[in-house]
Amino acid sequence: MSFTEGIRRKEDIILEVRNLKVWFPVRVGLTSIFTGSKKYLRAVDGVSFNLHKGEVLSIVGESGSGKTTLGLTIVGVYKPTEGEILFKGVDVHSTDKKTSLLLKRKIQMIFQDPFESLPPHMTVFDIVKEGIDIHKLANSPSEKIKLILTALENVGLTPPEDFFKKYPHQLSGGQRQRVSIASVLTLKPELIVADEPISMIDASLRGSILKLMMKLKRDFDLTYIFILHDLAIARCISTHIAVMYLGQVVEAGKINNVMKEPLHPYTKALLSVAPSLRKMSRREKIILKGEIPSPIDLPSGCRFSPRCPFAFNDCRKNEPVLIETKQEHYVRCLMYQKPNDLTNKIS
């Protein structure tokens, strides 16, 4: 699946995710301990998409949807159970050490909590310097200092010298996140995965961080994947969106297509409870019943059927596939599928 198939050139594709599955083995109960039998937590279960250079993809969904695991797998923290992740045609997880180090530099991640992601025992200077040292990006101490100065200036920490000897606990949440961004910038990445980058920051500072990230995108020709729960933010910053539920993408496409005309009941429910978006569209609030099912014991048929207000009998028997309903708009729902689109039919 490509959210922009036929619109952009194949050479513009920076990231290809092909049938990605990330399953974690778990042992449940005494029987499994004695028999050695395993179940699997299907955190990501068959996700595919292409991302073109310069695009901003927001991956949204409730906690437990698999969006953070997807992001961590893209940057190389987790290995796929099945499938591939290709960065400019190179498999992120099947490369020699030299290529792997280069890919780690080109694909960077900004984490959710700047209070935990920065080493408390290191100064700002040392934090930003660390990546430069690992990847040998400076030929002399003076060049190294220049890179650090430039990075701090680019994220608005000025005068940069004033921050050199400060420790994370001496900074505000917004300043800490700017240090995180600065340490990423020194590596000259092409793709940045940002996992809820403003959720742990004071509300008054969130807009300035997003504005900074969009400026850096323009200045350095960056491509972003944002992992978010706030659809209003996704609407403001994204070119494309993917809605995840229990490890699968249930709806995806250009941001305007999905926001203006959501197709999947789950997407409709998420949009209906987002205050700013509901007021804008005058949508009736949809309250989902029950909790998200366990990714260990998945429901049969459509995974959303136990909570879906529109579910019918076939939804509990047949698992829908992701299909393109119109250009750059995909949905995984039986209401939009023909009989020959169905998979895993249960008798």
CATH superfamily: P-loop containing nucleotide triphosphate hydrolases
User: Taking Cα atoms only, what radius of gyration do you get, to the nearest Å?
Assistant: 22 Å
Strand order of the largest sheet: 6-7-8-3-9-10-12-11
**How helix-rich are the residues, as a percent range?**
25-40%
Biggest sheet descriptor: 8 strands, mixed
Q: First CA to last CA: what distance?
A: 29 Å
In terms of per-residue confidence, which ranges show pLDDT below 50 for 5 or more consecutive residues?
none
Spell out the blueprint of helices and strands.
Blueprint (H helix, E strand, L loop, with lengths): L12 E14 L2 H7 L3 E14 L3 E5 L6 H8 L7 E6 L2 E2 L5 H10 E4 L3 H4 L6 H11 L6 H14 L18 H13 L5 E5 L7 H18 L2 E6 L2 H7 L2 E6 L2 E7 H6 L4 H8 L2 H7 L41 E4 L2 E3 L16
Parallel strand pairs: 3-8, 3-9, 6-7, 7-8
Antiparallel strand pairs: 1-2, 1-4, 4-5, 9-10, 10-12, 11-12
Helix pairs in contact: 5-6, 5-7, 6-7, 7-8
Walk me through what this model shows:
It is built from twelve helices and twelve strands. The chain is α/β, with parallel strands linked by helices and 347 residues long. The protein has a single domain, classed as 3-Layer(aba) Sandwich (Rossmann fold). The strands form two sheets. It has an eight-stranded mixed beta sheet, sandwiched between helices. Helix 8 links the parallel strand 7 (191-195) and strand 8. The mean pLDDT is 90.
